[in-house]
Amino acid sequence: xxxxxxxxxxxxxxxFPATLHTALWLAEQGLPVLPLREGKGPMGNCRACRxxxxxxxxxxxxxxxxTCAAPCHAWAAATTDPHILTSTAWAGAWRQAAAxxxxxxxxxxxxxxxxxxxxxxxxxxxxxxxxxVATTRGxxxxxxxTMTSPNAVRPGVDIKSLMSYARWLGPGTGIVSQLPDAVxxxxxxxxxxxxxxxxxxxxxxxxxxxxxxxxxxxxxxxGIAMAEQRITAAPDGIHKAVxxxxxxxxxxxxxxxxLTDAHIKRLFTAAQGxxxxxxHCEDAWSNAVAALGM
Length: 294
Hints:
The chain is an alpha+beta fold. It has 10 helices and 8 strands. Strands 3, 4, 5, 6 and 8 form a 5-stranded mixed sheet that branches. Strands 1-2-7 form a 3-stranded antiparallel sheet. The protein is elongated, with a radius of gyration of 26 Å.
């Protein structure tokens, strides 16, 4: 990633604010830019887009259908188009702007925002060296590659990449490195510690009283493995997916009493690996038991 070392002082006869001079230079380098108001926040939405009345970019999480000409919707407004940056719709924002920001993900990079000296010390011990930019309280470490943008991945460390913005603070020093696995791993939530269900299996799946269709342990193992796989691979609606799989397992294997705590723990582990809490797992299990009249 090539960063500018100077901001041009003259862009012709047009009297642009200094922030716009900076923005135009950065746009030439391939950085999608946007103005920031005092306090490092993005410009507020225009009247037509206030409170996302336009229906686009709800909570700034997705680009959405909005095509507003003004610099609305924070990171989603970032652009490299000089015609947009110098348009009448953006003029007022540049006059108010206190700083320039850019959309790292739009430029194919990730910024690891280290907010204090402890965070910097951690990065030096655990992350590969890369281009660094000094901030007010710490440093930005810039890597080539994109990822999600979670905050507080560890004390004093935020990630700014896709669907996020970072303040432009200068070209920095060093050479940009490829985004390492160690940074991407910061965005992966550790599943909560799994403990067996609070209710014993015998209470959820009565022992005996039903025909055992397993014939061999393979039948039960296949059913548990399939449920684990489907929970793990569910694209969305994880609550419903977990309930459906619990219901399917209990329907097929719950009445003969062959399920054990180990089997249920495997299902809970798969669900918690997708972000389900232990409470949600227990509720889904209880609801499935009740639905089958067990």
